[in-house]
Design a protein that fits this description.
Shape of chain A: elongated
CATH topology of the largest domain in chain A: Dihydrodipicolinate Reductase, domain 2
Strand content of chain A: 25-35%
Structural class of chain A: alpha/beta
Helix content of chain A: 25-40%
Number of strands of chain A: 18
Number of helices of chain A: 13
Radius of gyration of chain A: 24 Å
Distance between the termini of chain A: 53 Å
Number of domains of chain A: 3
Oligomer: homodimer
Largest sheet of chain A: 12 strands, mixed
Chain lengths: 425, 425
């Protein structure tokens, strides 16, 4: 089938945009006809870049009548939302890598797209190069997915891996990661778990086929994880990872969250190190699968953006209703369980006065809060006669654990509660 | 969009067929209208099975005018080839799990399908439940894939894992696997590497977008792997796995093979144990990804078959040219490199006379064959004054290594060549 060239408009020519431009050069049936950038004078490392198609007005891209597909690669809600909306209203299909926009206003843009019979594809928004969105929507469509556990942020996984390998503190490793360009000058979006929370919001929505609101995603970053916790976790047979997870229980309640977690050393996710990402899915009939690969970067992300472009391009001439399986409808809102009502297993690190009754005292406080314990280990008795105590609980309610933490803070036996990290079950 | 029910015909109601039937019950827009079986009187564990739609004449399925999609789940070349051909000629789309047919006669059936504007989907034929065919053809389509390394046979991976964990012999573990139903009474297809070779033939064809002939796939099974080799590999920092691999070199020559391989313990595939399968892909722009999950079984395989059915069903009413990205064309045949011309690193286990000159003698024979060595380790000097010697070579030509093996067999210093296994590079 001889077909005319598919015309692409790019919004954004940063790391991902450059990778997309370079990768698309290999495809004779695809042509980038307009590129919007913030600063037209910026020097770019793209050998074959056609400077004449560059504009600093993104509306020139979304309103260009020639363009079939608009790729939005600038991120953030504004002006991305309005640009995508305008592009759709002008008859363009959309490819985006914008996880924040999808998490916060996905419902709206998908409804606009559906109304105009356009598709929005976003493989690059979640787990970079790893094929996950298209597989869930197509070849895994026969499954009832009940659990997602994932490492979705390369920066925090790099930091935690380095802390583990080097025995270094969070602050020292963050500084090193910033120098190497793995962490931004303001690292908040990564280290406080926002980036992973955006991604799991969309991933859970897809997996459960019900809309998860970003506000219902519990979020906790890695800034309080200490070198001592990494060491204690290792001694107990665990690794500490920032895990984005989503579970659907039998009553139809979703539990979606991002927080540090102790995971067993023999689990697949425990071996996902540095900037690598991974997504584990559990469901019926598939059972359990894990997909791992590069979660960010110029070329891996370009792989996903270009894959989405080619999927649209392949059907543009063959049907008026493209990619039916890739449509998003979001008809139903998921019921979500509040973190305080969840059941978890915990790792707790306390500093206590080193006297005879302290272990019993810790046990008593837990018992009063309805918490059973798996182990209590005392170590590092210091010169000033204090001891570090590591507690692993059995499954218990989050609200009970929070009561126990308060009781420890009020107890005369306990000097400080150093860490409270959930353990994978 | 209100649409009529999509009508399915199943050929085969064994393990996979049963899983497919049970899984499809959840989909209101899909109806199984005819099922062909070998033995109509066989008792089956399918609670809601409609006995009236069962036939023992598979041609009743492929010629049934009501049916939109035929699922061929019997395996083997005959009569599957003719059934699929007839079904396509009768206007059916095809979903198959038949890796042998695809490897041996894929080109023909894809050409027939293309001629009749029908699609043949086969996610279940390779790596069971792991999404790999559809991802390669769709979301990874922008990539130039240069390397595939995979564990594609659950039976052999189970046997090798058990040999490793228990220190047991191949024969003992095979027997146990047969008793547990993980290996067949005649295990040849699995243990001699045929099953993995069928799968890598198709996977390499897809990855390289050039037809690989099954005859050009080098194949070696696991029957000669000894408990002593597993132990020696562990001591050297490796695991032994049956690896199906495909590489495309810069001159456009494909190197496709299945054989046991020593792989570093810190690699992802080293952690894929028991019946789990995994596929690692390397290419540009993606970099490196690994997909792992259940490679066989009633429900995981059903996940892939049902995913394929749903993909066809989704587009049946929206276009006359379904799933353009999933078409197979096989226009070009790949040039293949012969195993004797490949370069490999080797693990070699020799039993030698325990005298002073033996290490030097081994070194000399290797040097004469143009083989450089990484290490020679002597161990287990026995009562009858023989010693086991483990050699790891540097990269060298396969034909040189075969010459060296001959020279060892002729050498008066060497009692026997016990094992020769390639090492991952």
């Amino acid at each position: 089938m001889e077909s005319k060239k598919i015309k692409i408009g790019l919004i954004g020519l940063g790391t991902v945009g450059s990778g997309v431009y370079k990768t698309l050069e290999a495809f004779e049936n695809i042509e980038v006809v307009k590129i919007a950038v913030k600063n037209k004078n910026k020097k770019r490392n793209i050998p074959n870049l056609d400077e004449t198609i560059i504009t600093d007005d993104a509306y020139e891209v979304v309103s260009n009548p020639e363009i079939d597909i608009v790729c939005e690669l600038i991120g953030g809600v504004d002006p991305a939302f309005d640009l995508i909306k305008t592009a759709i209203e002008n008859g363009k299909h959309i490819v985006t890598a914008n996880k924040e926009l999808l998490a916060k206003r996905g419902e709206e843009i998908f409804n606009i797209a559906e109304k105009h019979n356009k598709v929005i594809l976003y493989e690059a928004a979640i787990a970079g190069g790893i094929p996950i969105i298209m597989p869930i929507k197509t070849i895994l469509a026969g499954n009832n997915i009940t659990r997602v556990e994932a490492i979705l942020n390369g920066t925090t996984n790099y930091i935690l891996t380095k802390m583990d390998v080097q025995g270094a503190s969070y602050e020292d490793v963050l500084k090193e990661a910033q120098e190497l360009g793995y962490a931004e000058t303001d690292p908040t979006g990564d280290v406080e778990g926002f980036d992973a929370a955006y991604k799991i919001t969309t991933l859970a929505t897809l997996a459960f086929k019900k809309k998860i609101r970003f506000e219902n995603v519990y979020r906790e970053g890695i800034t309080k994880v200490r070198a001592e916790d990494m060491k204690a976790a290792n001694d107990l047979g665990y690794k500490i990872k920032l895990i984005a997870s989503a579970k659907m229980d039998e009553k139809g309640y979703a539990d979606v969250r991002v927080h540090p977690m102790l995971i067993p050393q023999d689990s697949t996710l425990a071996h996902i190190d540095y900037v690598t990402n991974a997504v584990s899915l559990t469901g019926h009939p598939i059972g359990h699968i894990t997909l791992s690969g590069p979660g960010a970067g110029e070329f891996p992300t370009a792989s996903s953006v270009v894959g989405d472009i080619l999927a649209i391009a392949a059907e543009l001439d063959t049907t008026d209703y493209l990619l039916p399986m890739m449509r998003c409808r979001h008809e139903e809102l998921a019921k979500c369980i509040d973190i305080s009502d969840t059941q978890n297993k915990y790792y707790l690190s306390l500093n206590a006065k080193n006297n005879k009754g302290v272990i019993g005292n810790i046990g008593n406080i837990c018992a009063e809060c309805n918490i059973s314990l798996e182990s209590i280990v005392q170590k590092n008795v210091s010169e000033n006669n204090t001891a570090d105590i590591t507690v692993i609980t059995e499954l218990c309610k989050e609200c009970n654990m929070q009561s126990a933490v308060k009781a420890f803070e009020d107890s005369e036996f306990i000097n400080s509660v150093n860490s409270l990290i959930r353990v994978q079950i």
